[in-house]
Amino acid sequence: MQFSVYQESHIGARKVNQDRMGYSFTRDALLLVLADGMGGHLQGESAAQITLQTMSSLFQQHATPYVKKPERFLEDAFLAAHHEIHRYRASNGLPDTPRTTVIACLIQHNTAVWAHCGDSRLYWMRGGQILARTRDHSYVESLIGKGLVAPSERSTHPDRNKLFNCLGASAVPMVEMSRRASLLPGDVMLLCSDGLWTMLDDDDLACRLQKHTIVRAVPEMLQAALAIGGKQSDNVTALAIMWQGSSVVDSALGATVALSTVISTEALPLDLVSTTVLGVAEVAPEIDAFHDDEIEKAIAEIRGAIEKSSHVLK
Questions:
Q1: Which pTM value belongs to this model?
Q2: pLDDT band at 107 (very low <50, low <70, confident <90, very high)
Q3: Which DSSP symbol is given to 110?
Q4: What are phi and psi of 96, to 5 degrees?
Protein backbone atom coordinates (compact mmCIF):
# COMPACT_ATOMS: atom_id res chain seq x y z
CA MET A 1 0.00 0.00 0.00
CA GLN A 2 1.01 3.59 -0.57
CA PHE A 3 -0.99 6.57 0.57
CA SER A 4 -0.58 10.12 1.78
CA VAL A 5 -2.43 11.02 4.96
CA TYR A 6 -3.25 14.21 6.82
CA GLN A 7 -5.19 14.71 10.04
CA GLU A 8 -5.97 17.85 11.99
CA SER A 9 -8.30 18.99 14.76
CA HIS A 10 -9.26 22.35 16.28
CA ILE A 11 -11.14 23.03 19.48
CA GLY A 12 -13.05 25.93 17.92
CA ALA A 13 -15.00 28.07 20.38
CA ARG A 14 -15.73 25.17 22.74
CA LYS A 15 -14.15 24.60 26.15
CA VAL A 16 -13.20 20.99 25.35
CA ASN A 17 -12.26 19.24 22.12
CA GLN A 18 -14.46 16.14 22.08
CA ASP A 19 -13.33 15.01 18.62
CA ARG A 20 -10.83 12.18 18.22
CA MET A 21 -9.15 10.81 15.10
CA GLY A 22 -6.45 8.32 14.22
CA TYR A 23 -5.26 5.64 11.85
CA SER A 24 -3.57 2.26 12.15
CA PHE A 25 -1.90 0.18 9.47
CA THR A 26 -0.08 -3.02 8.70
CA ARG A 27 1.65 -4.02 5.49
CA ASP A 28 -1.68 -4.83 3.84
CA ALA A 29 -4.43 -3.01 5.76
CA LEU A 30 -5.29 0.54 6.82
CA LEU A 31 -7.90 1.53 9.42
CA LEU A 32 -9.13 5.14 9.64
CA VAL A 33 -11.33 6.18 12.58
CA LEU A 34 -12.91 9.48 13.60
CA ALA A 35 -15.24 9.94 16.58
CA ASP A 36 -17.12 13.02 17.80
CA GLY A 37 -18.09 12.91 21.48
CA MET A 38 -21.61 14.17 21.98
CA GLY A 39 -21.61 17.46 23.85
CA GLY A 40 -25.05 17.02 25.35
CA HIS A 41 -23.79 14.13 27.45
CA LEU A 42 -21.17 13.81 30.16
CA GLN A 43 -17.56 13.18 29.04
CA GLY A 44 -18.20 12.80 25.34
CA GLU A 45 -14.46 13.07 24.76
CA SER A 46 -13.93 9.93 26.87
CA ALA A 47 -16.43 7.99 24.75
CA ALA A 48 -14.66 9.12 21.59
CA GLN A 49 -11.22 8.15 22.91
CA ILE A 50 -12.44 4.77 24.17
CA THR A 51 -13.88 4.10 20.71
CA LEU A 52 -10.59 4.80 18.96
CA GLN A 53 -8.62 2.84 21.55
CA THR A 54 -10.88 -0.20 21.32
CA MET A 55 -10.98 -0.28 17.52
CA SER A 56 -7.24 0.20 17.14
CA SER A 57 -6.49 -2.52 19.68
CA LEU A 58 -8.77 -4.97 17.90
CA PHE A 59 -7.22 -4.03 14.56
CA GLN A 60 -3.80 -4.79 16.03
CA GLN A 61 -5.02 -8.26 16.98
CA HIS A 62 -6.84 -9.15 13.77
CA ALA A 63 -4.92 -7.48 10.93
CA THR A 64 -2.40 -10.27 10.33
CA PRO A 65 -1.48 -8.56 8.08
CA TYR A 66 -5.03 -7.97 6.78
CA VAL A 67 -8.50 -8.45 8.23
CA LYS A 68 -10.16 -11.63 6.96
CA LYS A 69 -13.77 -10.40 7.28
CA PRO A 70 -13.72 -6.57 7.06
CA GLU A 71 -17.46 -5.94 7.40
CA ARG A 72 -17.75 -8.19 10.42
CA PHE A 73 -14.65 -6.63 11.94
CA LEU A 74 -16.12 -3.12 11.72
CA GLU A 75 -19.50 -4.12 13.10
CA ASP A 76 -18.05 -6.13 15.97
CA ALA A 77 -15.48 -3.44 16.77
CA PHE A 78 -18.25 -0.83 17.02
CA LEU A 79 -20.19 -3.08 19.38
CA ALA A 80 -17.06 -3.74 21.44
CA ALA A 81 -16.48 0.02 21.75
CA HIS A 82 -20.11 0.51 22.77
CA HIS A 83 -19.64 -2.11 25.48
CA GLU A 84 -16.43 -0.50 26.73
CA ILE A 85 -18.12 2.91 27.01
CA HIS A 86 -20.80 1.38 29.23
CA ARG A 87 -18.13 -0.38 31.26
CA TYR A 88 -16.37 2.96 31.74
CA ARG A 89 -19.58 4.53 33.07
CA ALA A 90 -20.12 1.68 35.52
CA SER A 91 -16.50 1.66 36.70
CA ASN A 92 -16.54 5.39 37.37
CA GLY A 93 -20.04 5.63 38.82
CA LEU A 94 -21.18 8.18 36.25
CA PRO A 95 -24.86 9.25 36.33
CA ASP A 96 -25.08 8.94 32.54
CA THR A 97 -23.17 7.08 29.84
CA PRO A 98 -20.84 9.12 27.62
CA ARG A 99 -21.82 8.97 23.96
CA THR A 100 -20.10 9.46 20.64
CA THR A 101 -20.61 9.30 16.92
CA VAL A 102 -18.08 7.34 14.88
CA ILE A 103 -17.03 6.79 11.28
CA ALA A 104 -14.44 4.14 10.39
CA CYS A 105 -12.97 2.97 7.10
CA LEU A 106 -10.95 -0.20 6.47
CA ILE A 107 -8.84 -0.33 3.30
CA GLN A 108 -7.01 -3.40 2.05
CA HIS A 109 -6.24 -4.89 -1.37
CA ASN A 110 -7.29 -1.63 -3.07
CA THR A 111 -10.78 -2.02 -1.60
CA ALA A 112 -12.45 0.16 1.02
CA VAL A 113 -15.40 -0.56 3.27
CA TRP A 114 -16.72 1.80 5.92
CA ALA A 115 -19.26 1.91 8.73
CA HIS A 116 -20.76 4.67 10.84
CA CYS A 117 -23.07 5.56 13.69
CA GLY A 118 -24.31 9.14 13.96
CA ASP A 119 -23.42 12.16 11.84
CA SER A 120 -19.65 12.04 11.49
CA ARG A 121 -19.14 11.63 7.76
CA LEU A 122 -17.04 9.88 5.14
CA TYR A 123 -16.66 11.22 1.61
CA TRP A 124 -15.17 9.12 -1.22
CA MET A 125 -13.99 11.44 -3.98
CA ARG A 126 -12.43 11.01 -7.42
CA GLY A 127 -11.54 13.80 -9.80
CA GLY A 128 -13.58 16.37 -7.87
CA GLN A 129 -16.69 14.17 -7.85
CA ILE A 130 -18.24 12.66 -4.73
CA LEU A 131 -18.71 8.96 -5.44
CA ALA A 132 -20.22 8.19 -2.05
CA ARG A 133 -21.09 9.90 1.23
CA THR A 134 -22.45 8.49 4.46
CA ARG A 135 -26.03 9.26 5.42
CA ASP A 136 -26.40 11.04 8.77
CA HIS A 137 -28.32 9.21 11.47
CA SER A 138 -30.21 12.35 12.38
CA TYR A 139 -33.80 13.43 12.69
CA VAL A 140 -33.43 16.05 9.98
CA GLU A 141 -31.89 13.52 7.57
CA SER A 142 -34.90 11.26 8.07
CA LEU A 143 -37.17 14.19 7.22
CA ILE A 144 -35.13 14.90 4.09
CA GLY A 145 -35.42 11.25 3.08
CA LYS A 146 -39.21 11.50 3.40
CA GLY A 147 -39.30 14.68 1.34
CA LEU A 148 -40.55 16.75 4.28
CA VAL A 149 -37.47 18.99 4.48
CA ALA A 150 -35.25 20.40 1.73
CA PRO A 151 -31.62 19.15 1.64
CA SER A 152 -30.49 22.77 1.92
CA GLU A 153 -31.85 22.83 5.49
CA ARG A 154 -29.38 20.23 6.82
CA SER A 155 -27.20 22.83 8.54
CA THR A 156 -29.95 25.25 9.62
CA HIS A 157 -32.92 23.11 10.68
CA PRO A 158 -33.73 23.48 14.41
CA ASP A 159 -33.55 19.69 14.87
CA ARG A 160 -30.24 19.26 13.01
CA ASN A 161 -28.42 18.17 16.19
CA LYS A 162 -30.88 15.44 17.14
CA LEU A 163 -29.36 12.00 16.49
CA PHE A 164 -31.08 8.64 16.71
CA ASN A 165 -27.95 6.48 16.60
CA CYS A 166 -24.61 6.59 18.43
CA LEU A 167 -22.28 4.57 20.65
CA GLY A 168 -22.97 4.67 24.39
CA ALA A 169 -26.76 5.01 24.30
CA SER A 170 -29.02 2.59 26.18
CA ALA A 171 -30.01 0.91 22.91
CA VAL A 172 -27.58 -1.25 20.93
CA PRO A 173 -26.21 0.91 18.08
CA MET A 174 -27.24 0.33 14.49
CA VAL A 175 -24.03 -0.05 12.49
CA GLU A 176 -24.60 1.11 8.92
CA MET A 177 -22.18 -0.58 6.52
CA SER A 178 -21.16 0.52 3.05
CA ARG A 179 -20.70 -1.65 0.00
CA ARG A 180 -17.12 -2.45 -0.92
CA ALA A 181 -15.50 0.29 -3.01
CA SER A 182 -12.64 -0.27 -5.47
CA LEU A 183 -10.07 2.51 -5.08
CA LEU A 184 -7.96 3.99 -7.87
CA PRO A 185 -4.76 6.05 -7.54
CA GLY A 186 -5.71 9.64 -6.70
CA ASP A 187 -8.92 8.74 -4.88
CA VAL A 188 -9.50 10.74 -1.70
CA MET A 189 -11.22 9.48 1.44
CA LEU A 190 -12.25 12.24 3.85
CA LEU A 191 -13.53 11.52 7.36
CA CYS A 192 -14.81 14.57 9.24
CA SER A 193 -16.89 15.72 12.19
CA ASP A 194 -20.03 17.82 11.82
CA GLY A 195 -18.03 20.90 12.77
CA LEU A 196 -16.68 20.81 9.21
CA TRP A 197 -19.53 19.64 7.01
CA THR A 198 -22.15 21.92 8.60
CA MET A 199 -20.03 24.93 7.63
CA LEU A 200 -18.91 23.86 4.13
CA ASP A 201 -21.25 22.15 1.67
CA ASP A 202 -20.37 19.00 -0.25
CA ASP A 203 -19.51 20.77 -3.50
CA ASP A 204 -17.12 23.10 -1.68
CA LEU A 205 -15.34 20.18 0.00
CA ALA A 206 -15.00 18.31 -3.29
CA CYS A 207 -13.74 21.38 -5.14
CA ARG A 208 -11.07 22.13 -2.55
CA LEU A 209 -9.83 18.54 -2.52
CA GLN A 210 -9.63 18.48 -6.31
CA LYS A 211 -7.64 21.71 -6.59
CA HIS A 212 -5.09 20.98 -3.86
CA THR A 213 -3.33 18.10 -2.16
CA ILE A 214 -4.82 16.99 1.13
CA VAL A 215 -2.01 18.64 3.08
CA ARG A 216 -3.12 22.02 1.77
CA ALA A 217 -6.85 21.47 1.26
CA VAL A 218 -7.66 20.01 4.70
CA PRO A 219 -6.18 22.80 6.85
CA GLU A 220 -7.72 25.42 4.55
CA MET A 221 -11.13 23.76 4.92
CA LEU A 222 -10.81 23.66 8.69
CA GLN A 223 -9.77 27.30 8.85
CA ALA A 224 -12.72 28.25 6.63
CA ALA A 225 -15.14 26.33 8.88
CA LEU A 226 -13.72 28.01 11.99
CA ALA A 227 -14.07 31.44 10.36
CA ILE A 228 -17.69 30.79 9.38
CA GLY A 229 -18.55 29.40 12.82
CA GLY A 230 -16.89 32.32 14.59
CA LYS A 231 -17.69 32.56 18.29
CA GLN A 232 -20.13 29.65 17.93
CA SER A 233 -17.68 27.32 16.19
CA ASP A 234 -17.86 23.65 17.06
CA ASN A 235 -14.82 21.37 17.29
CA VAL A 236 -13.60 20.88 13.72
CA THR A 237 -11.75 17.71 12.75
CA ALA A 238 -10.76 15.92 9.55
CA LEU A 239 -8.73 12.87 8.59
CA ALA A 240 -7.99 12.40 4.88
CA ILE A 241 -5.97 10.10 2.69
CA MET A 242 -5.05 10.16 -0.97
CA TRP A 243 -4.66 6.62 -2.21
CA GLN A 244 -1.22 6.12 -3.80
CA GLY A 245 -0.70 9.85 -3.36
CA SER A 246 2.43 11.84 -4.14
CA SER A 247 4.78 13.28 -1.52
CA VAL A 248 3.55 16.19 0.55
CA VAL A 249 5.17 18.54 3.04
CA ASP A 250 4.22 18.75 6.72
CA SER A 251 2.28 21.89 7.64
CA ALA A 252 0.64 22.35 11.05
CA LEU A 253 -0.71 25.83 10.31
CA GLY A 254 -1.41 26.57 13.96
CA ALA A 255 -3.57 23.54 14.49
CA THR A 256 -4.53 22.08 17.81
CA VAL A 257 -3.08 18.84 16.47
CA ALA A 258 -1.86 17.98 12.99
CA LEU A 259 -0.03 15.13 11.33
CA SER A 260 0.92 14.69 7.70
CA THR A 261 2.98 11.95 6.11
CA VAL A 262 3.40 9.71 3.10
CA ILE A 263 3.40 6.00 3.86
CA SER A 264 4.53 3.03 1.78
CA THR A 265 4.01 -0.30 3.52
CA GLU A 266 5.53 -2.82 1.10
CA ALA A 267 8.71 -3.25 3.17
CA LEU A 268 6.97 -3.60 6.55
CA PRO A 269 7.29 -6.88 8.47
CA LEU A 270 4.15 -9.00 8.43
CA ASP A 271 3.65 -8.71 12.19
CA LEU A 272 4.11 -4.93 12.52
CA VAL A 273 1.14 -2.70 13.35
CA SER A 274 1.62 1.07 13.50
CA THR A 275 -0.95 3.50 14.86
CA THR A 276 -1.43 7.14 15.79
CA VAL A 277 -4.05 6.28 18.42
CA LEU A 278 -2.90 7.03 21.96
CA GLY A 279 -2.29 4.09 24.23
CA VAL A 280 -1.64 1.38 21.63
CA ALA A 281 1.05 3.05 19.55
CA GLU A 282 4.11 1.32 18.23
CA VAL A 283 4.60 4.40 16.05
CA ALA A 284 2.81 7.46 17.50
CA PRO A 285 2.69 11.19 16.64
CA GLU A 286 4.95 13.49 18.58
CA ILE A 287 2.08 15.90 19.25
CA ASP A 288 -0.16 14.78 22.13
CA ALA A 289 -2.83 17.46 22.30
CA PHE A 290 -5.53 15.20 23.72
CA HIS A 291 -3.87 14.12 26.96
CA ASP A 292 -5.90 14.33 30.14
CA ASP A 293 -6.19 12.21 33.26
CA GLU A 294 -9.68 10.87 32.65
CA ILE A 295 -8.92 9.67 29.13
CA GLU A 296 -5.73 8.01 30.32
CA LYS A 297 -7.76 6.28 33.00
CA ALA A 298 -10.21 5.05 30.35
CA ILE A 299 -7.35 3.74 28.25
CA ALA A 300 -5.90 1.84 31.20
CA GLU A 301 -9.29 0.29 31.97
CA ILE A 302 -10.06 -0.99 28.51
CA ARG A 303 -6.64 -2.44 27.89
CA GLY A 304 -7.46 -5.28 30.24
CA ALA A 305 -10.87 -5.73 28.65
CA ILE A 306 -9.74 -5.92 25.04
CA GLU A 307 -8.74 -9.57 25.33
CA LYS A 308 -12.21 -10.40 26.71
CA SER A 309 -14.01 -8.49 23.95
CA SER A 310 -11.88 -9.79 21.09
CA HIS A 311 -13.73 -13.14 21.06
CA VAL A 312 -16.59 -11.47 19.14
CA LEU A 313 -14.40 -11.47 16.04
CA LYS A 314 -13.59 -15.19 16.17
A1: 0.83
A2: very high
A3: T
A4: -145, 160
